[in-house]
Amino acid sequence: MSQLTFSEIEYSSKKKVTRKEIFFEKMEKIIPFQLCLNIIRPFYAVAGNGRQPIPLETMFRMYLVQSWYNTSDEATEDLLYENDAVRRFVGVRLNVDAIPDETTLWRFKDMLVKNGLTETIFEAINVCLAEGGVLCKAGTIVDATIIEAPSSTKNRDKKRDPAMSSTRKNNKYHFGFKSHIGVDDESGLIHSIETTTASVADIDVAVELFHGEEQRIRGDAGFVGIEKREDIINKFGAEPECNLPPRPIKRGRQPKQKPILRQDLKVLVNKKRKKISSLPEGEEKTTLKAIEKAKSQIRYKVELPFRYVKQVFGFRKTRVRGLEKNHAMLCMMYALTNLYICVNKGVLLINNKFYRGNSVVLQTNL
Question: Which candidate, 176, 276, 173, places its Cα nearest to that of 224?
Answer without folding.
Answer: 276
